[in-house]
Amino acid sequence: MTPRYSSHFLIVGAGAAGLMAGRALARAGRQVTILEARERCGGRIYPLRAEEFGYPAEGGAEFVHGAAPVTRALMREAGLSLSARGGTRWSARTGALLPDDTPLVHADRFYRALSEVSADLPIAQFLETHFAGRQYDELRRSVTRMVEGFDAADPRRASTLAIRDEWLARDEGPLGRIAQGHGALVEYLVSECRRHGAAIRLRAAVTAIDESRGRITARIRDGALIEADAAILTVPPPLLREIVLPLAVRERANAAADIGFGNVVKILLRFGTKWWEGHGGRDLADLSFLFSDAMVPTWWTQYPAEYPVLTGWLGGPQADRVSSLTEAELVEMGLASLAGIFDLPLDRLRRDLVASRAINWGNDPFARGAYSYATLQTRQAQSVLSGADGGALFFAGEALYAGPEMGTIEAALASGQERARTILTPEP
Fold it and tell me: For the chain, how many helices (H) and strands (E)?
């Protein structure tokens, strides 16, 4: 029994999956070169300068979801801690600002129907089939908002079975944030890769990969050529279309079109004060999440931390509808949304604004969106992309994770780790 490959690996993409795979291969004594198109590592983990918001704010991934065993194990290695989310959720969808403690309308009937689905169908079609009556209007709105906002998914494409697996999965860990920020996790992985001898090249966008006589050659945008024995592509699914690949690999890569990939716009606003705490005589000091029907419908604070920062969120089709707006226009839209929700003069919020950022992941040239979701064809596409065909090109990334937490950092880390383990497993 001998290892499939014994020498040099190229990894395209220094996000969570690429760094995790690179560390595992380098640890095993393989020569590893990681090529990253950006000027930084991390991909859709995007730490912002602490001076800007007063803490290590996140322009990309922010929360740790559920059990996340790979993420939590890596955090323990790195000496990082989890700050559990607390506080109270509020809603302004009824026209009044009230605690968001109302259960999903017709929840029992909805989850019963969801559990009985045997043949997959888009979640929008599921709602139309089982909950078409006017008495279910609010249920349909609530589910659609959740699919679009939380999953960044198009309800007309999102798999009902995948939504069921995700929503009914056991919650085995608190939702929280890495206290030191996801950037600290990236820094740890980068240091680990380098400690084990991996080379990381930034500003090295791969435009083509050739495979000939058992060797692969990657072409960089600046014209440089890098040879290796094998390569792992960890770029987001839309970017696979932009890399010229050998014909047989291209046919496999085309399966990525069957994996949903949603957009997110994230708006961070730092104010001089936490003006919302005593708004209208209400005690919002422990505000965690705020939901509304405003243009920017979802907001959250850093509670229990005291930073005077509100983060706005648009996901899925809602984010696509504002894709042409500039960063300044997105910030203004966020301020206007808050002004409407809290019934405050817009100028007052503008005067109290200290710092702002708006990140439209759909317009990011090295992401083309935020994260993946499952369509009816996704599991088959994942099987095609993850399968070993004896060639020298492999795929990894959060889009290839088949568990219920698709689209998370956990999914990316687990996929990179599993891909490296598969490569390192000896063949008979």
Answer: 15, 20
310 with 338: CB under 8 angstroms?
yes
**Helix axes of 409-424 and 16-27: crossing angle, nearest 10 degrees:** 30
CA dihedral of residues 365, 53, 325, 320 (deg, nearest 10): 60
Q: Which residue has the tokens 């697996």?
A: 165
CB 92 within 8 A of CB 341: yes
Q: Is 222 left (phi over 0), alpha (psi -120 to 50) or beta?
A: alpha
Give the amino acid at 198: A
- % of the chain residues with pLDDT over 90: 84
Mean pLDDT of the chain: 93
Residues paired with residue 225 on neighbouring β-strands, in sequence order: 219
Dihedral of CA atoms 367, 372, 376, 378 in degrees, nearest 10, equals 80
Kindly list the distances between the CA atom of residue 257 and the CA atoms of 261, 319, 364, 374, 380, in Å, as whole numbers in the listed order.
9, 20, 19, 11, 11
Taken in order 125, 130, 133, 138, the sign of the CA dihedral is negative
Residue 285: alpha-carbon gap to chain centroid: 29
Report the amino acid identity of residue 242: E
Contact 57, 47 (CB under 8 A): yes
Structural domains in the chain plus CATH codes = 8-45+180-258+374-424 (3.50.50.60), 104-167 (no CATH)
Torsion sign across C-alpha atoms 128, 129, 133, 136: negative
Which residues in the chain show pLDDT less than 70? 1-6, 170-174, 388-390, 426-428
For position 172, what pLDDT does the model report?
Answer: 61
- Name the strand (E) or helix (H) holding 387: none
pLDDT tens per residue, range 125-163: 999 999 999 999 999 999 999 999 999 999 999 999 999
DSSP H or E stretch at residue 278: none
What is the spatial distance between Cα 206 and Cα 199, in angstroms, rounded to a whole number? 16
Cα separation values, 101 from 111, 174, 260, 291, 421, Å:
18, 18, 31, 12, 44
Against a cut of 0.90, is the pTM above it? yes
